[in-house]
Specification:
- Pfam families: HATPase_c, PAS, sCache_3_2, SPOB_a.
- The longest helix is centred in the first third of the chain and has 49 residues.
- The protein is α+β, with helices and mostly antiparallel strands.
- Helix 12 links the parallel strand 13 and strand 14.
- The two termini are about 35 Å apart.
- Helices cover about 50% and strands about 20% of the residues.
- A five-stranded antiparallel β-sheet has the order 2-1-5-4-3.
């Protein structure tokens, strides 16, 4: 069972992510909204200040008082207008920017502060500015005061302090903060509920654990020899392992087709597993014919945590694989027989040597020993140099002695080399190919009473591993050549035959290779090609 993860649980992480994400989103929204509202308020106050300044600058009493530099009249009039308009201040200055009216009377007669009077007093423009004056930072409207003949004789500045505007915006800011807290709380509740639902769906596992479980499931499915197919209640394939595709012959030119998401009836029309969806029940060791292959299948219904039926799983193996395994065991028996033959030959040689010694022919005994040893050592030396795998070398050595016991001659091409064995090719597969081809050649040569040798050639040069076995036993009958690789097809009338070339063909196909033969009246040649590198699937 999986233990609790040391990292924070999925629920806690989801809540934290939703909290941070919501906080970032809401902060952006609040800041953007506050900036928009405050900017709009500043612009509104500026336009309002400019409108008030225009009205004040055109009042006859103001124009007359500015022309007379009558600060007392201007001060009383400006304060009355300021209270009426709700402005923070109304300041009136002369053409030099000297205050004639100000909310604080002690500042009358002093220069106006802010440095933003030039456009009004010199250029005669009306505008809104934002500057720091004697009362603080404010947004204010500036309008020149003109005499009756149009000359600029002064300036009117109406303003609203920014700190007062910010105070007016505080209720809106408080409302936005409360809204953020409410939305965050709601998101946390939704996140907790969503995390709980997801965790229940994942059977209590964390996402990392589910990812690991899925990876382990896929690895397990692809390592078992059986084919596995899973479908849901609608008959759609939800999972299939590589061996199912291989066993059913559903790959094309070495490329495995991925049927996940397809309907089982479309991918495997002769399967009856979809019919079990109406009345699901387990089945064991059912013999079926799928895509032309006879298989032994097991079917099991799938159920969820609430014991609701959600689909079917089927595992199967090709029936002929059992036969294939049986025949491969018989090959092991044949190798043991080859070792027995070699032991028998050595016993005969020892008896010959013992007889020569008993007859007092010591020199002849030594010569016989030397001759036998030289032949044996030469063969051993050749196999060690030419064949790197000891299992394959042992098979060839056993077949060599078996040929001698049968009164046949097995010639091994001295230029043969079998050291660069492909990574995907096992020694037992090469033994299956070589042993069956040689056995067929032995049987054919003995049946035809031919005195011609059997030739064995192997090479690992180039991109392919090539094995060639040739006999001179009169060839294969034309009537059985088209079906020579089928199980049970044979030219012999006795013994357990009809399986050798079938095993060769099956083994070569597994190795993604090819086997060819040519036959005429003189004899038969079988050639096996095994690629050293498989194409990427």
């Amino acid at each position: 069972m999986y233990q609790q993860a040391r990292l924070p649980s999925y629920r806690a992480r989801l809540l934290l992510i939703m909290l941070v994400y919501s906080l970032i989103q809401l902060s952006i929204v609040v800041l953007t909204s506050y900036w928009y509202v405050s900017d709009s308020e500043y612009q509104d106050k500026g336009e309002r200040a400019l409108d008030v300044a225009r009205v004040v600058a055109k009042l006859p009493d103001v124009v007359s008082a500015v022309n007379r530099r009558d600060s007392a009249s201007l001060q009383s009039l400006a304060e009355e207008l300021r209270r009426t308009m709700g402005a923070s201040f109304i300041v009136v200055g002369d053409a030099e920017g000297i205050r004639l009216a100000h909310p604080k009377s002690e500042r009358i007669g002093k220069p106006m502060v802010g440095g933003d009077n030039h456009a009004a007093l010199v250029l005669g423009q009306e505008y809104v500015s934002q500057a720091k004056g004697s009362l603080g930072v404010s947004v204010r409207g500036k309008v020149p005061v003109r005499s009756n003949d149009g000359q600029i004789i002064g300036i009117v500045s109406v303003g609203y302090l920014l700190e007062k505007i910010d105070v007016q915006l505080q209720p809106y800011l408080h409302f936005m903060v409360l809204l953020v807290m409410a939305v965050l709380s709601l998101n946390m509740l939704i996140g907790w509920w969503l995390a709980q639902r997801i965790k229940d769906t994942l059977l209590g596992f964390e996402p990392e654990q589910m990812t690991r479980l899925y990876a382990e499931l896929q690895a397990t499915l692809n390592t078992i020899r059986e084919g596995v197919i899973a479908i849901n209640r609608e008959g759609i394939i939800t999972n299939v392992n590589a061996n199912a595709i291989r066993l059913l012959g559903k790959d094309q030119q070495g490329q495995a087709l991925n049927p996940v998401g397809l309907a089982l009836r479309d991918w495997l029309p002769d399967s009856d597993m979809v019919e079990l969806l109406d009345q699901p029940q387990a089945q064991s060791d059912v013999e079926l014919l799928l895509n032309g292959h006879l298989v032994i299948a097991n079917r099991v219904p799938m159920k969820d945590q609430q014991q609701n039926f959600i689909g079917m799983v089927s595992s199967f193996r090709r029936k002929d694989e059992i036969t294939l395994l049986t025949k491969q065991l018989s090959q092991i028996k044949a190798h043991s027989e080859a070792l027995r033959v070699q032991n028998h030959e050595h016993s005969n040689q020892l008896n010959t040597i013992a007889g020569l010694i008993q007859l007092g022919e010591g020199d002849k005994a030594l010569a016989f020993i030397g001759q036998a040893n030289d032949q044996f050592q030469e063969l051993i030396r050749f196999l060690i140099e030419a064949v790197e795998d000891s299992v394959i070398a042992g098979c060839i050595l056993g077949k060599f002695h078996r040929a001698r016991e049968l009164g046949l001659v097995l010639n091994i091409d001295p230029d043969s080399s079998l050291r660069d064995l492909p990574a995907h090719c096992g020694s037992e597969q090469i033994v299956t190919i070589v042993a069956n081809l040689l056995d067929n050649a032995f049987d054919a040569t003995r049946a035809s009473n031919s005195k011609q040798p059997i030739n064995l050639s192997m090479t690992d040069l180039g991109n392919d591993l090539i094995i060639e076995v040739e006999d001179f036993a009169g060839g294969i009958q034309d009537t059985i050549q088209p079906s020579i690789y089928e199980q049970g097809v044979t030219t012999k009338t006795q013994g357990d035959h009809g399986i050798g070339l079938y095993l060769v063909k099956e083994t070569v196909q597994i190795l993604r290779g090819n086997v060819e033969f040519s036959s005429d009246q003189s004899g038969t040649r079988f050639t096996v090609y095994i690629p050293k590198q498989l194409k990427q699937e």
